[in-house]
Amino acid sequence: MATVTYDKATRRYDGSTRPAVDQLELEVGDGEFLVLVGPSGCGKSTALRMLAGLEPIDGGTMRIDDRDITNVDPSDRDIAMVFQTYALYPHMTVGENMGFALKIAGRPKDEIKTRVAEAAKVLDLTDYLDRKPKALSGGQRQRVAMGRAIVRSPQVFCMDEPLSNLDAKLRVATRTQIASLQRRLAVTTLYVTHDQVEAMTMGDRVAVLKDGVLQQVDAPRAMYDRPANMFVAGFIGSPAMNLLTVPVDGQGTVQVGSLGVPMPRDGHGGLTGSTVAIGIRPEDLRLVGTGEGVEVVVELVEELGSDAFLHGSVTGGAEGGGPGRPPQPAAQGGEGHAGPDPGAAALVRRLDRRPRRRLTPPAGDPPQDRRPQGFSSAATAGMLRWITGRARRGRPRRARGHRP
Hints:
Layout: E1 4-11, E2 21-28, E3 33-37, H1 44-52, E4 59-64, E5 67-68, E6 79-82, H2 94-104, H3 109-122, H4 138-150, E7 156-160, H5 168-185, E8 188-193, H6 196-202, E9 205-210, E10 213-218, H7 220-225, H8 230-235, E11 242-247, E12 253-256, E13 259-262, E14 275-280, E15 295-303, E16 308-314, E17 348-350, H9 377-393
Helix pairs in contact: 2-3, 2-4
């Protein structure tokens, strides 16, 4: 077990206008499970590969405990990495795959067998040690790849999106197994993913990156409740937070559609006449009666069984109500509260109850021709006759360039 420290670590690729990782300062505690999360191209995988020694560092330093590993060979860093692809040897059994690194290191056969058996027991792979990878499911192959890392007993685990190749149901089950396994082994782990739900459910702490720059590091719940900036606020949470840019009037009230929402008194000093960004979590919204809150036209309803997500747009603007509606009076809220209800503004979502349009063509219209464009009926029939005629005559195909 060990601590990991990035001290202004920087990586810049040739021809790039900005660093892939820009002066990253991050410390991972002993036995901690830290998740690096962010959109594609944000530098999270590069940061992991820098730690493993697969990418050189153009600036700053990196340490494991008090040991500077900036210029240490990857094989001497005592780090085990699990990649996005399983990378198993197809001609070896599960046991041989898991013990291959120890075999290369020259460990005794008895020690290899013991370590492989222990790792297989932890990963529930004991019954599969004599199978080849082709006889395993995707989740089992990923566990074999993890077992290959576990048998080495490294100081640090590096996992680069190990669940991205699994289906949704298996991904949920496997991420639970990985999180519980890490807590059982208590090995310092850096885990890279682009799935923020995965990050929130697995990590002790979450580090959010954007364009190679660290945006925030915190516990999942703390990051959800107190995002450091608009990017983190919009990235963390599913469904994403509603972010609105609205003007502030002379009374310190912002207009959300037809609803005036008073800002906290300590939050609008000197902002009168300017605009501010406010965020509203979807789970903080509730349906209210007609004439209350803000009218929202629903454009899409996602039915997920236990939940239903409504996607829509707010009617009206900064001047007041929507079409045909008078401006709504400003809601009365307590000091330090950003809406009529504690925690968020109360908005109304008005369902569009008009009958669904029929997808069949109206009566009297000619039926649509579903044939591929560019082929007429006569041309298609002629082509079929030509093909069947050649098949019956049994003519050999001409070689390319041959003329009759």
